[in-house]
Amino acid sequence: MSNLSKNPVAIITGGSRGIGAATALLLASKGWNIAITCSSTLEDANSIIKKCEEVNNIEGIAIQADVSIDEECQKTIQETVKKWGRIDALINNAGTSKFAWDHSDLEQLDADDFLRIYSVNLVGPYQMVKHAKPYLLKSSNPSITNISSIAGIKGIGSSVAYAASKGALNTMTISMARNLGPIRVNAVCPGFVEGEWLKVGLGDEMFNAAKENLELKVPLKAVANPDSVAQSVFSFVEVNKIVTGQLLIVDGGHHPVSYTHLRAHETKANRVCRRRREKK
Fold first, then answer.
1. Residues 62, 38 contacting (CB under 8 angstroms)
2. Residues classed as catalytic
3. By three-state DSSP, how is residue 84 classified?
4. Does pTM top 0.85 for this prediction?
5. pLDDT tens over the chain, length 280 residues
6. Residue 142's beta-bridge partner residues?
7. How deeply is 6 buried, as exposed, middle or buried, from its count of CB atoms within 10 A (0-12, 13-18, 19+)?
8. Backbone φ, ψ for residue 251 (5° rounding)
9. Is 193 helix (H, G, I), strand (E, B) or coil?
């Protein structure tokens, strides 16, 4: 094990792009050493680490790891501790989905889809917490932040399986908060997040239709982006040190909008999905 780092240390799973990358850059700017994982895009992860190191002269490492595989979760913890001797924050951001927006069409998903999505979105965070726990308990400011989704609260989103996995992650967050103190355990639940992952998954037509409709309907006339979600993560990690067991919704006010408005962008998305299936 190396000498104990003077800087606090954060692990961010799925840190090569989007919310994970934005969180890594924000924490680096605040003086944190950063370990990020990725399952396939190691070149992108190394690029983010390079940017982190340039931001504030901190240290960083990129680790290729699939959080659904327990041995790779263990490897992530071991490599981080070997380099810095400590872990102060764990941000479980890695996630996956299958884009099956029409929740009434149950033929779009099968058991394998559910198992794959749950293995990354729920089992992965559990395994990361299990292996990080002994080191977090040695920290003077230990925290776990799970990146969940409004889908897990409202039963909406890219697929029934995705919504169910995020609902389970929310429940696990509350259970862990109750039982893992003094480690703080919270979740950030974004709504629609403006970014490449969602745009690629939806396609330009559906992405733009959903974004435009939400910006018209939600009270703040805006949708979340990776930077706004990262700010919420930072508040749990560094600012709100007496808060645990909370599910923070970051959606521009989407969640309190009436059911009719809440369904509007899904209806548009479903129409696009049906047109795509009819063309096949």
1. yes
2. 162
3. helix
4. yes
5. 457 999 999 999 999 999 999 999 999 999 999 999 999 889 999 999 999 999 888 999 999 999 999 999 999 999 999 999 999 999 999 999 999 989 999 999 999 999 999 999 999 999 999 999 999 999 999 999 999 999 999 999 999 999 999 999 999 999 999 999 999 999 999 999 998 888 888 888 888 988 998 999 899 999 999 999 999 999 999 999 999 999 999 999 988 775 444 455 555 555 555 555 555 5
6. none
7. exposed
8. -150, 15
9. strand
